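User: Look at the shape:
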Amino acid sequence: MNAWACLAIAIVAEVIATSALTASAGFTEPLPSVGVVIGYGIAFWFLSLSLKSIPVGIAYAVWSGVGIVLISVAGWALFKQSLDPAALAGMTLIVAGVMVINLFSRSVAH
């Protein structure tokens, strides 16, 4: 499987696990708690697979940047958490940073 596809799966699994973490209410709700453990397990497994081809710094930058944006959107959509203009501006800068890394960094080619 392509390293970037593995990274994408890792990011989605991490966002699902983090959303379940919120729903687990401090691990007092069994089903979301199981989702946390399974989701993070899948996330780290696929992250480790992506690191066979993607440098760790690049993978982690993409993981964290995309993950921050996706979990913020999930929080807004699922848990009615608000996103003010400063949060939206910050997320825009994060996306811009990930794009700069992927489009212009020679490190990505390794």
